[in-house]
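Tutorial, part two.
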Amino acid sequence: MGSSSAIEWTDATWNPVTGCDKVSAGCKHCYAETLAKRLQAMGHDSYRDGFRLTLHPHLLDLPLRWRRPRVVFVNSMSDLFHPDVPFEFIAAVFDVMRRADQHVYQVLTKRAERLAELAPRLPWPPHVWAGVTVERADYLGRTEDLRRVPAALRFLSLEPLLGPFDELDLEGIGWAIAGGESGAGARVMELRWARQVRDRCLECGVPFFLKQLGGYPDKRGGDAATLDGRRWTEWPALPATTGVLPGMA
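Running the prediction step on this input gives:
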């Protein structure tokens, strides 16, 4: 796992940490937990402990071995800023990202407070992006923590989008991704919620990416993920210092 990804807003995943714990409403139907249990049943070595938080030092150098530059979602199967991940391991992950600078890295967390606390002790070259998940308006405090991170690009993952955002402050934010929930028991995303986010992005000049409309068994992604007759798949500018070119992701 890791060389490619079906996630529309990236093209590879890298999981030096697997497993996590639920911290907010968006975690209720965690896709990573479901997938981890499936991989455990299949005998996958990295998931012998299922979804229990596990460090994988042997996977730290994986991006250094990838020749083709790519956009990399860091820890799609966990959260790098989980309280049980030691700072020394986080620092090792950041050191690899610093050295494997042909790629662009998307570091996404729900533990925004720990991200902001540790950010000053970590390197933030232009090809390492910082993001937080904000699934409902009552978690908007995470954006305040994100703004304290000295990353060249800060982004929001509003997925699964579980409610309206009557006020969405995009100051200091360079990208917004939204999407409905998928999988068994998926909660409905109202289109007006996605419109609110899109309209706010248009007002602020922030690229907007609508991943999927959500649902089960059809998550209504791809060409079906339209809003007012259009697909919204905007990207921020990619750092010229990397080998990643527009359209590669």
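The helical segments are 31-41, 62-65, 87-99, 112-118, 141-146, 191-204. In part three we will examine how such features are distributed along the chain.
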